[in-house]
Amino acid sequence: MPHATAPPATGHRPRWWTELPLIAVVYALYSVGRLLVRGDVSTAVDNGLAILRLEQALYLNAEHPLNRLFTSTPSLGIPADFAYASLHYLVTPAVLIWMFRRRSAAYRAARVWLMNSTLLGLVGFTLMPTCPPRLLDAGHGFVDTMAQYSAYGWWGEGASAPRGLSGMTNQYAAMPSLHVGWSLWCGILLWRHGRHPLIRAAGIAYPLITTIIVMGTANHYFLDTVAGAAVMGVGALLVRPVIRIADRFKAWGAARFTGPAGILFAGRGEGGRSSVAGSVSAAVPPNVSTGCKTSPGERIPGQRTTSADPPGPAVSGTAAGDDADAAASDDAPAAAR
User: Fold this and answer.
1) Contact at 8 Å (CB) between 1 and 240?
2) Within a 10 A sphere around the Cβ of 27, how many other Cβ atoms?
3) What does pTM read for this prediction?
4) φ, ψ for residue 155 (rounded to 5)?
5) 121-158: b or e for each residue (b if 16 or more CB lie within 10 Å)?
6) Whole-angstrom Cα distance, residue 45 to residue 169?
7) Residues 96-131: pLDDT tens digits?
8) Least confident of 76-80, 109-113, 273-277
9) Any idea of the CA torsion for 245, 250, 256, 262, to the nearest 10 degrees?
10) Could you give the 3-state DSSP secondary structure of residue 272?
């Protein structure tokens, strides 16, 4: 997905005081929307069983053996639960900050890609509430590792939510898996923009490990992970159209409003100046002397004189040319008479 991480056509250096509120607002809207789109539990269970039956028909059954491995091996299950409950809160913003500080030319496209995919995931939660495997009836063969190892962590019955705050999360927002989607976003950026081999290796390992974890802890079906990757792909395809729309909106606002509001719409360029200020300075003619001349014997500060210069007062070529022009202009009326 190179077009989703390539530098934009026009230079645009992001500013943290505009990026931070934007990201905070989008994440707050996502979190509130995730809570508001809770569907009926029976519908979520039906959707979860439908996904399970489809996987069985396709001979896709990675969840059961992974879940049995994690529940029977605490040395794997406990770290997996910690990773599921925390890494997406740590790695995703860390990669975003890394892009902001070290790869600023590609940061805007990466940020738009992440926001597009997150909002598309919210649409998926709304249209298809899904019961994760761990919340199905025990007869389906899944064990909730988050509940099994809850004594080792801060989470309770609400998956990665802290104890007593399970009501603040939507446990049926499983399709698509944004754990996998966000990890894929991180992995592609680390692979594409990382220069050290270890960073690029982490870009490959992180989404693969996340996929294994979400299935082994019975938080997602395999098809949830496939949907998470698909959401990231669609989000990447929408990067350029979204950036074009945003740029047109900025141009419209900059043309419609003046003063601080116009600068707010226009944003800031690479050098820290607003594009409005740049357009104003571009309108000033390059000849800023506006007719100022040096008088005979006056030297420009810092001007060097060579040994070939004759002694005596130095007259600049500009002043001499100006005197000649003045003499010619004085003689013009006489010639006319």
Assistant:
1) no
2) 13
3) 0.73
4) -85, 160
5) bbebbeebbbbbbbbbeeeeebbbbbebbeeebebbeb
6) 17
7) 999 999 999 999 999 999 999 999 999 999 999 999
8) 273-277
9) 170
10) coil
Residues 6+ positions from 280 with CB-CB distance below 8 Å: none
Question: For residue 15, what pLDDT is reported?
Answer: 77
Q: Which amino acid is at 129?
A: P
Sign of the Cα pseudo-torsion (95, 101, 104, 109, in order):
positive
Residue 38 structure tokens: 């809770």
Q: Over the stretch 290-299, which tens digit does the pLDDT of each residue have? A: 445 555 555 5
Token pair for 212: 């294994």
Residue from 110, 121, 132 nearest 47 by CA = 132
First-to-final CA distance of the chain: 79
CA atoms within 13 A on the CB side of 41: 4
- Which of these, 37, 208, 66, lies nearest to 133 by C-alpha position? 66
Dihedral of the alpha carbons of 57, 62, 68, 69, in degrees to the nearest 10 = 160
What kind and span of H or E run contains 98? helix 74-102
| Per-residue pLDDT at 197 exceeds 60 | yes
Nearest alpha-carbon partner for 232 in 87, 331, 116: 116
Q: How confident is the model at residue 31 (pLDDT cuts 50, 70, 90)?
A: confident
Q: How large is the greatest C-alpha to C-alpha distance in the chain, in angstroms?
A: 117
Residues near 175 by beta carbon (within 8 Å), at least 6 away in sequence: 47, 51, 124, 125, 128, 129, 130, 221, 223, 224, 227
3-state helix, strand, coil in the chain (%, to 5): 65, 0, 30
